[in-house]
Amino acid sequence: MHRLLLLVASLLALSGCHAEHAEAKRLDAACEGGEIKSCGLLAERLQTGRYVLRDESRAATLFTRACDGGLGDGCASLGVLHQRGRGVKRDSVRAVRLFRQACDRDGLDGCTRLGILHRTGDGVPRDVAQAGALFTRACDGGNLSGCAQLGALLAAGEGMTRDDAKAASLFQRACDAKVAPGCLGLARLHASGAGVARNDSLSLALYDRACDAEEATACFELAGVYESGRGAPQNYQRAARLYRQACESRHGEACYRLAGLYRNGAGVYRDSSEAARHTSEACTLGFDAACPPKPRKS
């Protein structure tokens, strides 16, 4: 009986896999036939390797076709590839232009990403009010990443009146849809008891969820909880693993904190060469406190 159940489960899995392959072929044929939306959907699969061989270069070609055909979401996705230098040459100026083009065409992810740049002043003038307007537009249109970003502004009181309760509601909506920044924001509120009841165990679970979704800041902040022992039992080994995970995702301060653990032999073997390596890496990633002091001008 057990073997029969395993056989049935295997056949169902194979049939599902076959169906996904068939769908990918259908999208390919439809795209070649001029159906722009299919080009975008196929590009998404090629970008992630979902039931097709991962090919970010071809994904970029198809996102370009979708964008040129007027599909806002295609412009936003192409912008992300240019922003990260994946499958195409890294070009932050073109990424900004594509995000703006996407937003103008109701590609709401483009609005969110453009808002993030305006919040930080990365490649565009820093304009928190503009960022808030873009996040609001995206969130109102159903883009939950936009809701998470709007929640972050409300929780910080940045460019708008602070409202922790409204921020918590927005974070919850985003987190329920597996949007990692939403889970991160909600974790912070439960850790501090701002706008929601303080709940350390729920905060840890939310940090974990966001970290598992490759939100480097969540891994970094969770590592800090375990290193300090505030909000969870102190656990240097777990802190080291989480700092390493965030460092590998290019979080400069996480590399610096990991260097400190190697320097002190906390949770890892004391190793001055590893400490020096991670300190240098932190500096390269832009964490200025890790960089050697600049010589004073005489």
TrEMBL record:
The gene is hcpC. It comes from Roseisolibacter agri. The keyword Transport does not apply. Keywords: Repeat, Signal. Belongs to the hcp beta-lactamase family. This is Beta-lactamase HcpC. Pfam families: Sel1 (PF08238). SUPFAM superfamilies: HCP-like. Residues 1-19 form the signal peptide. The keyword Signal applies. InterPro entries: HcpB-like, Sel1-like, TPR-like_helical_dom_sf.
